[in-house]
Amino acid sequence: MIRNKKILYPLILLVLLASVGGGWLLWREREHDHAGERKAAQGKLLYTCPMHPFIIKDRPGACPICGMELVRKLESAAAAQSGGHNGQADMPGHVSLSESQRVMANVATVEAWQQSLNKEITASGIVQFDQSRQAKVTSWIAGRIDRLNVNSVAASVSRNRPVAELYSPELVATQLEYLLALKSRDQLKDSPIPSISQNGEGLVASARQRLLLFGVRESQIAALEKAGKPNIRLPIYTPLSGVVIEKMVQQGQYVNVGDVLFTIADLSTVWIELDIYEPDLAIVRVGQRVEIHSPSFSGGTLSGRIALVNPFLDPRSRTVKARVEMANPGMRLKPDMFVSALIRVPLGTALVVPVSAVIDSGKRRLVWVESSPGMFEPRQVQVGQQAGDRVQILSGLREGEKVAVSGGYLIDSEAQLKSGTRDQGAGTGGHQGHGTPAPRAPVKKDPLSMDDMKM
């Protein structure tokens, strides 16, 4: 009897524990079913990434792209039946955002406004010689360089001071011929025979012309007439004042007719060759004022005007050369020096928006316009010139319309996401500018699986 009691009591205790555990499990299952029904009635609870709204999961976690914590996204059946925000959520291409969604997506809007624009074009350039102020000193007669007054490159020269002296037997003979012609003219000028008196004048003119062709100046011919004897050495002068940039001869060297002795450049005026890129060519004109800056001189700028826009495009740099003529007081600008330039071009009054408001898809440019509070629609626009952080709108937008200046790409991604889920298999492609994607071949899965995304 005692043995039976020892067995019976544990059995009764086990039955009671099993009954209590079974009842608790049944209660938990019913509560879970009721919670699922309440959750289904409220809508499916999903989680998405604020930065990548196409990432949608049914459980909390981290975004597989950027690692941000996922936030709740409620897809309410009741909201879908009611047409969403203001009954317009199903409008093609439109995106409706609640206040909380706008805060999470950092969406801000501004009104398009009229403003006077000034386009500022920055360009780099190189200082060059003014080609109209360069000259070569050549020998007009064969001979020997007996004296060289310029001994090095970069030496300053003046057109009134000879750079060299040349001995030429032919020149000496021509001077003697001229002196004899002068004497003959004086002797024959009183002849009663006109042909004889005119012949003396012709000899003088012929000898004089030969001296001029040899490079002898009028002042030198006058000095020859006054002295009455030939000058053994012929002084050679430069056509202009400047600096020597090339020296070709040495003292004592023999030269022939046409040999180059020096190359001279006048640096009082220089050219600056600027590189203008293709997008700015339409508004760059001859005569526009240019401000020149260089790290070689501080404090203040130099000013010049565009004298020529080259008609040729450099195929490697995709730039066009624009020539600026610059006065060069004190020779502050040196040839081959790098400079930066600023060109201010007035564009007049135009409709403008911030640059961040325009989404460039490559084929077209869009802005997101807030047509009603919380409702955004895409608008294709034609843009003009960009000035700083503002861009000119030529068509597609009216003054006073609100455009999204931040969060526009997130709105665009949301529009593509909604378009893809709504029109799957229907052959449409979301808002304007987003066509039906072409079928893609299957690819191998990578760590960032497309199972995490609902495109």
UniProtKB/TrEMBL annotation:
* Record-stated family: Belongs to the membrane fusion protein (MFP) (TC 8.A.1) family.
Tell me the organism's taxonomic lineage.
Bacteria, Pseudomonadati, Thermodesulfobacteriota, Desulfuromonadia, Desulfuromonadales
Organism encoding this protein: Pelobacter propionicus (strain DSM 2379 / NBRC 103807 / OttBd1)
Chain spans, region Disordered? 415-455
Q: What is this protein called?
A: Efflux transporter, RND family, MFP subunit
Give every CusB-like three alpha-helical bundle domain span.
Answer: 201-230
Regions of biased composition (Basic and acidic residues) lie at 443-455
* Keyword hit for Signal: yes
Q: List residues of the CusB-like barrel-sandwich hybrid domain.
A: 136-265
Q: Return any one Pfam family short name.
A: CzcB_C
